Task: inverse folding
């Protein structure tokens, strides 16, 4: 059974998938930093300091805090601003991935198929004989 597992784990698809997941996690961290550290501050500056991540609706009368972290400690809250921020992050990540994949596909331009090889001397001779017999 150990040998069978070794064969399974070392198959190309499993190893490729593992590498893809690791690269995806690293790429996700880069894009999260891009969104959190560059794009969202620019959006905040344009909108006058608007930060969606702290918007919530209290679901209990016990919640009186104005910050999301404090409100969660007091009771149930509907953190719609945090959800909106995560959806925005996802859309930006998906768009960046789209651009990366589009760029990679552009680099992978398909080479034109090679021209068929010229027929061998024997094939050429047989073709000439056939054509001569047709013309009789």
Result:
């Amino acid at each position: 059974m150990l040998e069978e597992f070794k064969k399974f784990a070392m198959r190309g698809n499993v190893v490729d998938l593992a590498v893809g997941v690791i690269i995806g996690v690293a790429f996700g961290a880069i894009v999260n930093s891009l969104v959190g550290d560059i794009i969202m501050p620019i959006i905040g500056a344009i909108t006058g300091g608007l930060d969606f991540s702290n918007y919530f609706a209290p679901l209990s009368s016990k919640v009186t805090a104005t910050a999301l972290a404090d409100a969660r400690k007091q009771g149930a809250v509907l953190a719609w601003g945090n959800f909106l921020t995560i959806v925005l992050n996802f859309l930006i990540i998906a768009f960046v991935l789209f651009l990366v994949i589009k760029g990679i596909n552009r680099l992978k331009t398909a080479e034109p198929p090679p021209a068929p090889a010229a027929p061998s001397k024997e094939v050429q001779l047989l073709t000439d004989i056939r054509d001569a017999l047709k013309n009789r």
Q: What stands out?
A: The mean pLDDT is 83.
